Amino acid sequence: MSKRPLAVAVVVLAGLSWFVWTTDDEPASDPDAPATTRLFEGVAPSDVTGLTLGPEGKGVQLLKDGDAWVLAGSPPKPAEGALAELAVRSLVEADSLRQLSDAGDPSSYGIGPAAPTASATLADGRVLNLRLGDSPPVGGGRYALVDGAVHLVEPAAMTPLLRDPLDYRDRRVLPLDRDGVDQLSLRCDEATLVLTRGDGDWWIEGEPAYRAAPPKVAELLLDLVDLQARAYGGELIEAPRCVVRLAGPAGEASLILGPEDDRGRMPVLAEGELLPPPLRGEAAWIDAARLGALDPTVDAWRAVELLDFNPFLANRIEWEAAGVTWTFAKQDGWSRAVGDGAPEPVDEAPVLALLQSLDRIESAGYPDLAAAEDAVEVAGIRITQTSGRDVAITLLRGASRDFARIEGEPALREVAADLGELIGSHRLEPAP
To answer: Is 412 within the bounds of a domain?
Structure first.
């Protein structure tokens, strides 16, 4: 027998089998329907005032509260607003790739009682309902039931409707505006550190007061306001490990931290009028490593750098040493005037190098005032920036050590000899 007729017969039989199988499992699409149509015509995301997601009795209900979203409950809890808006758009802007004609029983498409559901309540009282089913045996898409009709929709567009209900909870433990915080305190065991914002800097309260390191304070504030709960319903904290307090003009908030457990978690309790009412007194669990080691000692927070400025924003330097004053000003370029003399141009490179050197100068120690009683002022520099903020430093020379006084900071700093060499004897000559 020839192999060619047998091969042709196999191909024909396979084609017939595929035709029968596909026509039995999926009704033909409506030939008069456009390629894609909006499932809910004439509805905009702004029309939605409520959203319910998930199988009946097991989902999450979101409600619009002004411009914010909340999770329904007693009391309502803050919701993850961006994700709620994304879910609303996914529902009301969903397209039908095609509608199945004569679909029959929706359960044959996986749209049964346990199917994922999404319902949106509109401002006019209407309710939009969508139920998701299986994917078709051939091709892409996913079945969806809307107003009794089965449609094929794009699966990726439905992803926000299938998130874990807990994903819609705003899990921030301290959802505060960090710019509204002007005092921060840490109390761990018997040690307490208090940081206060003033004159553009953070200060460590004490005698004497020192500037706090700006990056460290900024990092801690960011860690606090972004702190996420892993779970809710933490244990009663009988012996707090640390207490963090944040205060501002609108009130204060505290975070009480308990000891770490063997799963790397830490119980926390948030309190205070700065928090939304539903979060006050709520216990939660956080990752113990999220806040790191909270160290309330002064040494851990003092600003090591002497001058906090940006060398590239400087536009004026007033420099005095050995009874002579030099004034450097930047307009089209840098110029130098000695005393009351006329300005002369100077090269930009050495001026910038001086500014960068000053920006890198660090404390060599933190002496008490008595250690510098006999020190004599020998030089000083004031730097003005385009932001309008000035910084200034005065060099004092003692019998065996050099000290620096930072304008606005009551404490003295011990400095290495390189600062004396830099501003006590360094000169910038006019450009040739």
So the answer is: yes
